[in-house]
Model the fold of this input.
Amino acid sequence: MKKVLVVLNPSSGAAGGASKEDAVKKCFDEAQLKYEIILTKKNEDVGEVIRGRLKEGFDLVVAAGGDGTVSLVINGLMETKIPLSIIPLGTGNLLAKELHIPLEIKDAVAVISSSPRYKKIDVMKIGKQVFVLNASVGYSPIIMRSTTTAQKNRFGNLAYLVNAVINLFHLRFHGYEIAVDGKMHTGRAFECIVFNAGALARTLYPKGPDVAVDDGHLDIWILSVTKGLDYFRYLFYALVGRPGKLLPPMLSAEHTVSIKSKRSVLVQVDGDVIGKTPVEIVVFPAALTVLVPDERITLGNRG
Done:
C-alpha cells in the first residue's frame, strides 16, 4: 500500500480550509489509502519541509491546492524519484486541466487509488526555484500582483479579468532583449510569456502551435505591436478565436530563455510575482513524474 504525503494549502479555492481538509481526509479514508496531511504556512519553505519528510519513506506526494501550491511542492520533489499527484483546489488549476486530472476531490483521489499512469513532464527553473506552467514579464504580472487571494476565492477567474481592466493605465511598451538559446531578439513589446504548458497558450494564442508540458522545450510569445490600438485588436481577435495577422510568431527554446529590459519590470511565474527583470529560465525535459488518469478509465468532471 502506498504511503502518501498530502501537502494541502488551506487558503486555496473558495471553501474554508477546515472543510477542504475534512473533504480530503474523507476521500482518502474511503479509498483506504495510508496518508498524512500537512498544511502549508505563509512564508514557509514548502520544498524544504517536503525534503525533510521524504526521509520517512513516503511513496507519493500530493499537492492539494492551486497551481502555486503545485509549484512549491515540485520544488521539494526535484532530484528525487518520488512522483507527484494533484488534487486541484485552486482558481485556475491549469496543470490539472493540462493533465486531465479530475477537478472533484473524490475523483482526483481515485486517480491515486486506481491504476494511474506515470507521465514525465518538463519543468522550468529560475534560480533555485522550479515551476511548470509559464513565466511572463510586462502587463500580466501587474494583474497577478493586484489580484488578491480573497478576490480569487470569491470571484474565481473573473477576478483576473476585472483587475486587467482596472490596470489598463499600466499598459505600456518596454524595450526588451530576449535571448532564446543564445540567439538575441530585441524590440519593444507589451508582454512576453514563456510557456511550458498549453492551457493558457491555447487561450491567448488560438490556432497557434501545439504547446505541451512534455514536448521537451519552451515556447516564447512576444507581443510586439506598433500601436497601443493593435494590442486591443489582438486581444479581441484572440478572444473570438480569429487572431488574424496580428498574432506574432512563437519562438522555441530547447535550453534557456533570458529576458532583459531597459527598465526593470515585474516577473510572474505560475501566477505569483517573484521579482523583476532580468530573468533567466532553464528548461529540464522529463524532469518530473506525475500521476495521471488511466486513459481507459472515465472519471467525472475532467477539465
